[in-house]
Amino acid sequence: MSAVVVDKVTKVFHPGRTDEVVALSDVDLTVGDGEFVSLIGPSGCGKSTLLRLIADLIPPTTGTVTVVGKSAGTARKEQAYGIAFQQSGLFEWRTVLKNVELPLELRGLSRAERRTKADQMLALVGLSDFAGHYPAQLSGGMQQRVAIARALAVQPPLLLMDEPFGALDEMTRERLQAELLAICAQTGTSTVFVTHSISEAVFLSDRVVVMSPRPGRITASIAVDLPSRDDAGRQSPTYFDRITEVRQALRGTPVKSTP
Amino acid sequence: MRWARAILPPVVFGLVAIAAWQLTVTAGRIAPFILPAPSAIWDELVEQRRNVWEAALASGENALIGLVGGTVVGVLAALAASRFRPLAEVSIPFAAVLNALPIIALAPLLNNMFESTSSIPRRLVAGIIVFFPVFINTLRGLREVNPIHQELMHTYAASGWTFAVKVRLPGALPHVFTGLRQASSLAVIAAVVAEYFGGLQNGLGSRITSAASFTAYPRAWAFVVGACLLGLAFYLTTLLVERLAMPWRTRLIA
Question: What is the pTM of this model?
Answer without folding.
Answer: 0.76
